[in-house]
Design a protein that fits this description.
This protein is an alpha/beta fold. The protein has helices at residues 52-69, 83-87, 91-102, 111-124, 163-170, 178-202, 211-223, 236-249, 268-281, 294-306, 311-322, 327-344, 351-363, 375-385, 393-404, 422-435, 462-467, 469-483, and strands at residues 5-11, 16-24, 27-36, 77-81, 106-108, 132-138, 143-149, 152-159, 206-210, 234-235, 286-290, 448-451, 455-459, 488-492.
Length: 500
């Protein structure tokens, strides 16, 4: 379904932001935006748990966002959470409360996925250009670095350093002196050193800053004439001058310069220190600013899904190539699995279930590239921990769970609620794999599936079962696997005689 109005929610480590846009001719025009300085990262305690005050601030902000989003379809809204909720140990406890407050699902996205979306957003807010661009986004808890061309990112990284975390770490009482500032710059430089060689090797023609820290620094430099020759954006000379003025003032609050908004002051020193290190380590002389960032990237990625340019499809296709999955077998299994799902759903399966089942079919054998023995476990591990552009952490976990469950015992999935539709998907995938165990194009007889009182019923011709005793025995083993979960798995001949 294509929507005229779409919305993105960014649960950042410093601020929560909402952007509502109207879709016109595949372009998105902003209708409304909201920002709440939640400072979520400041609520991370030493044990990496999110404290109660930070959770309360977050929930209050999300309730306000939810009021603005009232009336929009769930498919028209995408909410993403970044670094703080990636690292918070109690995020799984907080997220259901956050989703209830917002009224929409929230995805916790990986660092490189955040980088990809940032680049998409930045590139759509800049004039078209054929050269490569470096986009840098200093967030509250992490900083993303992306080199790309036009709207396609080519190199992406996310480093665990942000304006909130660095301000708390190096300027806890908001006092700034030369020693503290240098310590913050050195710490950031050590992180950037890990990626600098790869980025300089690929190269770029134009450096772009996005989001709040870059905007705040650029505003101060421009409004106070700190850049040489009246240049716009951020320059190395202007940044060095700003650092000297911060040290002289002793704190961001005492910095008697127009340009820094009140809600940015508490985290300004950390952002300046990180930006200084970026200029030094990547040998940047000048950086311009892009209005578009994560929120706009989320909106354009959402728009791509409406027009069947879903990045997740591209990622799955790339995994198939990388792990040399046998294409013919995937096509057989996918066709049979989707047929089973359609039958179970009375001809109308849910779009999300179709998507996840298709993806699971296409990657269910990627673990064979590691080892055939327990390959479903290897595949699930890869899908859990690999960078998968387009997929949230929750999506990855669901896909990995389907691949893990496509063979072997099912008790390992016993924590999943009985009402979860993933059980249907696992049944369909396991059935398709079983039907195509011979891995060739021999004909499969007419078959049907339906729901039983507490499980599934499969109907196959009796003469085919008699002619294929190996497969018939495998169905018997499958029935025992489901029985261990307390579910029925009934195989019948077309005469309805119960066989297993």
């Amino acid at each position: 379904m294509i929507y005229e109005t779409v919305a993105a929610v960014d649960l950042g480590s410093n601020s929560f932001r909402l952007q509502v846009g109207r879709v016109v001719d595949n372009q998105i025009y902003t209708l409304d935006s909201m920002k709440e300085p939640v400072r979520l990262a400041s609520g991370l305690m030493p044990d990496k748990r999110l404290d109660a005050p930070a959770q309360a601030r977050a929930l209050d902000a999300l309730r306000r966002f939810g009021e603005r989003l009232g009336g929009l379809d769930k498919g028209a809204v995408r909410a993403v959470a970044t670094n703080t909720l990636r690292v918070a140990k109690n995020a799984f406890e907080f997220l259901p409360l956050a989703e209830e407050a917002l009224g929409f699902p929230i995805e916790v996205i990986a660092g490189r996925e955040e980088a990809r979306l940032i680049y998409i957003g930045a590139s759509h807010s800049l004039p078209s250009a054929a050269h490569k661009r470096l986009v840098v986004d200093i967030g509250g808890g992490s900083t993303e670095f992306i080199i790309g061309k036009r709207h396609e990112p080519q190199l992406m990284e996310s480093l665990y350093m942000g304006c909130v975390s660095y301000t708390l770490r190096f300027f806890p009482d908001r006092r700034i002196d030369r020693k503290r500032l240098r310590e913050a710059q050195v710490a950031a430089a050590k992180e950037i050193e890990l990626i600098a060689a790869d980025y300089q090797r690929l190269g770029w023609k134009e450096a772009i800053g996005s989001s709040g820290s870059a905007r705040a620094i650029a505003d101060v430099l421009e409004m106070n004439g700190l850049n040489p020759n009246g240049e716009s954006g951020i320059t190395r000379v202007g940044l060095a001058t700003l650092c000297e003025l911060l040290v002289k003032a002793g704190s961001a609050e005492a910095l008697d310069l127009p340009g820094v908004k009140g809600d940015r002051l508490p985290v300004f020193p950390g952002g300046v220190a990180i930006m200084s290190a970026i200029f030094e380590e990547l040998d940047i002389e000048r950086m311009t600013y892009a209005d578009g960032a994560l929120r706009l990237g989320v909106l354009y990625d959402l728009l791509g899904r409406f027009h069947h340019h879903d990045m997740r499809d591209s990622t799955v296709a790339q995994f198939r190539r990388r792990y040399q999955v046998e294409g013919d077998q995937v096509e057989r299994v996918e066709a049979s699995a989707l047929s089973a799902l359609t039958q179970l759903s009375d001809g109308s399966p849910g779009e999300a279930d179709v998507q996840f089942l298709s993806w699971a079919c296409r990657v269910h054998e990627i673990g064979i590239s590691v080892a055939h023995n327990a390959y479903h476990k290897h595949g699930a591990y890869i899908l859990t921990y690999a960078d998968m552009p387009g997929f949230s952490k929750k999506d990855q976990a669901r896909l990995a769970m389907l691949v893990l469950g496509h063979r072997g015992k099912l008790e390992k999935l016993g924590g999943m609620p009985a009402s979860d539709s993933a059980w249907d998907l696992i049944f369909c995938l396991r059935l398709a794999v079983l039907l195509h165990r011979t891995r060739d194009d021999r004909a499969i007889p007419a078959w049907r599936v339906s729901r039983g009182d507490n499980g599934f019923i499969i109907e196959l011709p009796a003469d085919w079962l008699a002619a294929n005793p190996w497969t018939a025995a495998a169905f018997g083993e499958e029935a025992n696997v489901w029985k261990q979960l307390g579910r029925e798995y009934v195989l019948r001949s077309k005469s309805t005689r119960k066989i297993a």
